[in-house]
Design a protein that fits this description.
By secondary structure, the chain is mostly helical. It has 2 domains: 15-118; 137-302, Intergrase catalytic core (hpI Integrase, Chain A, Orthogonal Bundle), CATH 1.10.443. 51% of the residues lie in helices and 4% in strands. A hairpin with a 5-residue loop joins strand 2 and strand 3 (199-203). The protein is globular.
Length: 324
Amino acid sequence: MEPPAVPDKAAPHGAEAAPRAADPYLVYLDGLPSAESRRTMRGCLDRIARLLTGDAAATGAGQPWGRLRYEHTVRIRTMLRAEGWSAAHVNKHLVALRRVLKEAWRLGQMSGEDYQRAADLPAFQHTRVPAGQHVPPEVLGAALAACDDDRSPAGLRDGAMLAVLYSTGCRRAELAGLALPDFDAAARSLKVRGKGDKQRLVYLTAEAMARLEAWMAVRGRAAGPLFCPINKAGRLRHTPMTGQAVSDVVTRRVAAAGASRRTPHDFRRTFIGELLDAGVDLATAQALVGHASPATTARYDRRPERTRREAVDRLRLPDPKPLR
């Protein structure tokens, strides 16, 4: 498929093609609150740049984002869908495109009217079951037992991390971003920084508190992240963990328990489902997990699924019997 034509000749692909402060791509990425967000949106913009240029090595740096007009962005939207990606994946790319266009407008590289028209891209509608799977209590129990069998500091840290994930529904990046002052032992709470740098308080069960306090006895009161890397010699490094490191801990401990693979998002999915099963109202569940919309939280409600399954269970296949 031919890429849409853009006015004038496209700029070079390297960041050196324009000063950093004048490149909408770099300005947008620099303004994102977390390394994980920057990595995700960089990937989206780089893929758009490759579609536009036909150059497999292209990145979004130095591209003429401010020259894009409505006819170009509509074509980009069509090209993204033609890649065969899910609607959710395409919509993430459209978010990145709208945001980089906004930075181009802020930098004076396109008029307000051109920006509004170019960014007027409807998202693709889709209805999907949330990704992931439930974490049964016996799987969590076995994973915690695997942590307890590990007498090193990593065993205490990982047990506390699993307990916090299960009892708060934090995202992996949120857990990695927790700092020591975010933990309030008296209130049994953690101050979490979510998407868009929005803060919320989450609360710990008594069992999770016990594990976190056991970890704190080893971690100490030194400034830095609440959960930190530990080297092979058992020495703590008071530097932040990454979201991927949190995922690796979950994968390793669940595997040691002899269970099938689980992810931090599975813990989040389970937390929301357990809240709703227990009769917690949707608004409270939404606030605890930091969803922008209650509709997102409602997608994790297992009760309608269980009702539909029970309805089907009322049916019975007839006994196999030949017709006379």
